[in-house]
Amino acid sequence: MSEWRFWFNSQRGTLLALAIFILTFAIYLANHPAIVNNGLTVQGVGNVVQTAANKGILLALIAIAQTFVVLTAGIDLSVGMIFVLCNVVASFVVVNNLGAAWGFDLGPVFGPAVGIVLVLLVGIACGAVNGAIVIFGRLQPIVATIATSAVFFGIALWMRPQPGATPEFAKALGKVMLSKVNGVIPASMVFLLIVVVLLWIPYRRSVLGRATYAVGSSEAAAYMSGMPIRSAKFLAYVWSGLFSGLGGLYITFVTSSGQADQAAAGTYTLNSIAAVVLGGVSLFGGRGSAVGAVFGALAFLTIKDLMFVLNVDPLWQPLLQGVILLIAVSIGSARLFQVRNRLELFG
Length: 347
Known about the structure:
Blueprint: H1 3-10, H2 12-31, H3 33-38, H4 42-70, H5 79-93, H6 112-136, H7 141-159, H8 172-177, E1 180-181, E2 185-186, H9 187-205, H10 207-217, H11 219-224, H12 229-255, H13 262-278, H14 290-309, H15 317-333
Antiparallel strand pairs: 1-2
Helix pairs in contact: 2-14, 4-12, 4-13, 4-14, 5-6, 5-7, 5-12, 5-13, 6-7, 6-12, 9-10, 10-12, 13-14, 14-15
């Protein structure tokens, strides 16, 4: 088998998600009122792309968080609640002067950067709790994360019974995130690209990253091969918590506030699973990538926006969206009906 054929077979799901995204976004762009009324201009296309990017990055981050756990053949139903909890925590600590919110001065050194680190540590801690319960408590991931999600939401609701933020919140960060680099490229997409390059790619090529795929493919075989199973699974949940924390930071930058929103948490959790599947990540584990999950998230949101642009009756939109998602997933999984051995997936 040639190297290119092996690469194509291993990236089939990602490439399909990319194709779906390009197709749906092209149709969306051609029917967008800003393009229809003003013509195909660089500024018009740039504004549409920026709007889509600002909406898509949050689901993309949560989908990446979900990907780490799904690769181990698990599922994390707490990613939405971790995202909400980090959003609430960020509304307290991402401030220009960390001590100002509590009535004392810590100086400019303890500014937004320290608050950002604290929020990410909260996300990592939540992921570590999930990993510890699943690995050492030997509970099924779906059961463990349902339980922890309730705990995380309770903490968020205790901290923020009502939406809001401290007066010292660093609002300038939101302006940066919603801006354009060189007046063309959305800053949010640059941020997402940096995250993928600096975090996902090194992880994918690391020993524990390869072990994660091995665990998802066959945990028994990975154990017999001497793979660090526990470390790989634990790190997968930690990474999941970290990316959920990044999602919480992003929404805080954009809204300049925190809110214990249970509905939003549930919606993003379910949508992250749909984005992961649409992105070619197998729910059986061991196959897929965060890049595919990003394209899956962008395609998922573009399909929703396309329904709106085409003036589809809101009562029909969930049905049509579900049918499109089902068709896309079925196409990506068609070869499974012909597989007698999991090794044949790469044959």
